[in-house]
Design brief:
19% of the residues lie in helices and 38% in strands. With 123 residues, the protein is of the alpha+beta class. The chain has one domain: Roll (SH3 type barrels). The N and C termini lie far apart (50 Å).
């Protein structure tokens, strides 16, 4: 007789053996290193591609970047139901994040915006 309830056992099995590999176009929470190399921050990011046991990602911020030409506004409610406003995707060069630092899937970028990002970054 199993002493572990079925939902708990399934959750454990999925975490250990499930395919959690992030895919291009998905938004995941990740521990993203700061550009100056002195630390990191857990934040949502867009997965561009998988390379060498890590991902190339674009950062997403909730701070208003509407005056910048290297950011685009993205709908946040698709992947964060508690969001009160849209976020901004930083289109500057991708940042490398180790696979172990990419933790939870939040959702996916809408298809028209993903097509623009793919063209811009050659994905």
């Amino acid at each position: 007789m199993l002493s572990v309830p079925l939902p708990s056992m399934f959750t454990w099995f999925w975490r250990v053996f499930g395919n959690r590999k992030a895919k291009p176009g998905e938004i995941w929470w990740a521990d993203v290193p700061f550009e100056d190399g002195t630390g990191s921050k857990v934040r949502p990011c867009l997965i561009l591609r998988y390379r060498w046991r890590g991902y190339e990602v674009l950062k997403i911020t909730s701070q208003d970047q509407s005056r910048r030409h290297d950011h685009i506004q993205i709908a946040t409610r698709h992947w964060d139901r508690n969001a009160e406003r849209n976020s901004y995707l930083d289109l500057t060069g991708p940042i490398r994040v180790r696979e172990s630092r990419v933790d939870n899937r939040a959702g996916a970028l809408d298809a028209p915006t993903w097509a623009k990002v793919r063209k811009l970054h050659g994905v």
